Amino acid sequence: MKILVINTGSSSLKYQILNMKDEKLLCKGLVERIGGKDAKIIHKIDGKKHEEVIEIKDHEKALNEVLKLIINNEFGCLKDIKEIVAVGHRVVHGGEKFASSVLITNEVKKALEENIELAPLHNPPNLLGIEAAEKLLPGVPMVGVFDTAFHQTMPPEAYLYPIPYEIYHKYKIRRYGFHGTSHRFVSQRAAEILNKNIKELKIITVHLGNGASIAAIDGGKVIDTSMGFTPLEGVVMGTRSGDIDPSIPIYLIRKGYTPDEVDNILNKKSGMYGLSNYLSNDMRDIREAKSKGDEHCKFAIDVYVYRIAKYIGAYATALGGVDAIIFTAGVGENSTSIRRHVCNRLKIFGVELDQEKNVKLNSSEAIISSENSKVKVLIVPTNEELMIARDTKDIISKRVEA
Question: Which residues are catalytic, by number?
Fold first, then answer.
């Protein structure tokens, strides 16, 4: 069973082909700068990389080029495009309507259109990807896998904001959470690594990339998560502020900034980028600058670590204890020092790293806590594409059985 996984952005298209018989990755790639004359395609198969720069006017053209590469005699991974039995689409926002992945129908697409106000930067390109795939692969079932769905198990005390209820009811302003596919994958994988039933575990998943979020998972179900109505809420991120006093945007607007300027500051000029005095949003650059005595970068890392540890502590309380803490995504998987600094702040919960394992097993799937630690600490590389492919396989298999 060969499944195509698609993740579309405003000017990009990421893809993978997986053989779900053994969950083997057959090929993957990225099309970037869609809409320009210098669009770039990067296609990878069996450790080999093929690159080309061509004009790609839209997502349909991008996907068409991808499909040609997939069956290319030299770079392809399939003999015939008809080998693709289904397409799994990453969709950022499912709103309150979708608590799980679904077969895409006209009604589902209409619901996604209704959620565009909630995710104006993400849902429109996600829809373009769906429409392009439907046109180029007619009759092939499409499945939508939502970043927000896994978090729909949050109780009202976690997802409601203390604003007038009529505003929530009218505009659906509530905490939705994001990175749900990643949080679901790593929590399930951690249970397998620990040889435990996930229904018996209290887990805190720490997804630290350029975007970052933390989730409290009790028995396999999310009870709280750090991102909220938008991906701006929560911990400090690469360029996003995370939690701030809600009066700050109002104050800046009264000082003469436009709403768009404030939005740009909080989403693109804040976080590690802003705290480092615009040096970089990349943790590697910031750590290097800190090691050379840059005080801005020192403060940036201190704030970053403090906010992460504070969220983990709050979620340990919300869960009534914690069995495992999982680090994942770019920074979580690859930064030994960030994991060390965060865990050093969690000793009150009985968290103790094995410092040698933390360094030696960096970026690997591993348990890195000491034998004496009361809480298991793990590195689990995320694999959202595999999670999407699994959901797609399950849904179309049930469809065939029915």
Answer: 147
Distance CA 163, CA 152 (A): 20
Dihedral angle of Cα 243, 247, 249, 255, to the nearest 10 degrees: -150
Whole-angstrom distance, CA of residue 78 vs CA of residue 84: 9
What pTM was estimated for this model as a whole?
0.92
The reply to whether 196-384 shares the fold of 2-146 is yes
CATH class of the structural domain 2-146: alpha beta
Structure tokens at 12: 């990009």
320 is in an annotated binding site: no
Q: What is the pLDDT of residues 260-296, one digit of tens each?
A: 999 999 999 999 999 999 999 999 999 999 999 999 9
Backbone angles phi, psi at 68, to 5 degrees: -65, -40
The pair of three-digit structure tokens given for residue 392, joined into one six-digit string: 């797609």
Distance between first and last Cα of the chain: 18
Residue 333 annotated as lining a ligand binding site: yes
* Cβ within 8 Å of residue 268, ≥6 positions away: 239
Residue of 299, 125, 311, 118 lying closest to 208 (CA atoms): 311
Q: Which residues pair with 207 in a beta bridge?
A: 213, 328
Task: Say whether 255 counts as a known binding-site residue.
Answer: no
**Would the annotation count 14 as a binding residue?**
yes
Domain 196-384 has CATH 3.30.420.40: yes
In the chain, what are the domain boundaries?
A: 2-146, 196-384
- 112: pLDDT confidence band, cut at 50, 70 and 90? confident
Q: Is 332 annotated as a binding residue?
A: yes
Q: What is the pLDDT of residues 217-261, one digit of tens each?
A: 999 999 999 999 999 999 999 999 999 999 999 999 999 999 999
Cα distance between residue 305 and residue 370, in whole Å = 21
Mean pLDDT in residue range 52-80: 93
Token digits of residue 80: 């015939």
Q: Which residues pair with 222 in a beta bridge?
A: 217
